[in-house]
Amino acid sequence: MKTILDDLLPQVVNLYDLPGLAVGIVQRDQLVYARGFGVRDLTTREPITPSSMFLLASISKTFTATAAMQLIESGRLSLDTPLVDCLPGFKLADDRFTRITLQQMLSHTSGLPDHEDYLWETPQEDEGALTRYVGSLADQKLDFDPGEKYAYSNPAYDVLGEVVARVSGQTFDEYMEEHIFRPLEMKESTFLKTRVSPRLATTPFINVPLAEPSPVYPYNRSHAPSGNLHSNILEMGNWAIANLNRGLFEGRQILSPSIYDLLWTPCALAEEFGPVDSVGLGWFIGSYKSRRAVSFSGGEVGFCTNLVLLPDQSLGVIVLSNTFPAPVDVVTDLALDLMLGLSPRLPRPPVVITLSRVLKEAGMEAALAGARQLQELHPQDYDFNPLQFSDIAYILVEVKKIPPAIDLLKLGLPLHPGSTKLHYILAWAYQAAGEGELAEQATRQCLQINPDHWEATRLLHDLRASQV
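RESULT FIELD:
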């Protein structure tokens, strides 16, 4: 096993121009594979090791969900507890907020809208940051009735973090340290960037489409519960072992086994995640080649992560990269196939890297011509997945590089004219550029393909309201 992965993974790093990558494989009670590839920083060239620390982004939510379930198991909360009973001062500019329950918060069915700006450029790092953020939601309205459907919400998990703090009487960070990190021997893991050892920290990069340093570090204590976790392959191996063993790690039980019947039972469909088809409580539920899978992935400016567990095979894979976007799903599949006795195959090169070089050197017309030619003559030789265009464009918009984001989307849309995601992100990019008319045009194209695209519907409403 080690020989095959050690041969394939450096090729993936080179193929996708990744600065760094770390991979861990858990089988039953052991971390059977842990290795780093590439570097922590392109300037110092210090190598990635299994101890190197990454920001795990949304995988943080699995920890926040576990904390909430610990309080439910202890009887201090219940899944049906109204949110307002936990946070009496919490309010929204929407009367429906009093009907939100903890179960809806955990399963992304509360109706709370997602973040629009994480303020990475001006992070708040003091102890009161989370409480202030939760209070700042008072002018927000719900996107739909609580419990009506699934829609991913980072704010829901930040509010859950405040619930954990308020009910436990500790800060969110103190609770996680005492009740999760310490029992699982996760000594370096932390939700506080200031506690990450400089000798272990990784520098974030963005592939746009070639690696360059991220202009921001995606950390803000206001959003700790939804995305601030820092950890490494060795300690995430402990996390995977504990969950595969239904809460048990080296004789210590962080959750009762029965709780996993709740965590891993589908609550709603989550169709936009491909092989993931449902959301449970803090985990996504789907399958991998006909095997039950529970998972969570994370992506932020400069970091991309993935955690997949196959409970029935007692198998888990953790992939961490200090680059966004990064093919963490591709690497996960290579590792899973190997462990399942299947034949792992190296992925095709992403077409976006080839076309972006043409775009930079010869302009849009030449890049579009190249795209048509590759699609017609070499459809099996390249990866044409539209996500490679939308993911990079999303990050470019987030770091305020709007014109190259728009160019990239214009390059991807002729290859995938039916992609609602590309149309929607183009609309969002035009909105960020102050091009209201073009933003509305792109939004309408998105809704023409899928009239039920709720994000585009909300964006169209916002665009019309801004014109009044």
